[in-house]
Amino acid sequence: MGGIDSGATSMLIVAKVSKNQRGEARSSKAHSVPRYGASLLDRGIIDLTGVLEVIGFIEDTFGITVEDSEMLPENLDSIDRIANFVAREKG
């Protein structure tokens, strides 16, 4: 299977995070699209429920199973980290 375009992956993730923000303003900080490297949790962009929604999105969109051991900030706490995680998993 070919590699995945990390730019396209990032854009899909931005769209998902933005949709979540519009659907549920989780904090006053959740009014703009975050920088790709910014922590989604620390900035209040998503909460733990939002992380689970992003995991579901990753699994449905990219056909990846996110294992419990992979549910770490290193993999899921920013758009860059999510895109890199997806790229690694799709290899």
Task: Give the secondary structure arrangement, pairings included.
Elements: H1 6-23, H2 48-62, H3 73-76, H4 79-90
Report on the structure:
By secondary structure, this protein is mainly α. The protein has a single domain, classed as Non-ribosomal Peptide Synthetase Peptidyl Carrier Protein, Chain A. Helices cover 54% and strands 0% of the residues. The chain has helices spanning 6-23, 48-62, 73-76, 79-90. Helix 1 packs across helix 2 and helix 1 (6-23) crosses helix 4 (79-90). The N and C termini lie close together (8 Å).
Label the structural class: mainly alpha
Q: How far apart are the first and last residues' alpha carbons, in Å?
A: 8 Å
The geometry reads as globular
Number of helices: 4
CATH architecture annotation: Orthogonal Bundle
Keyword list:
0% strand; Non-ribosomal Peptide Synthetase Peptidyl Carrier Protein, Chain A; single chain
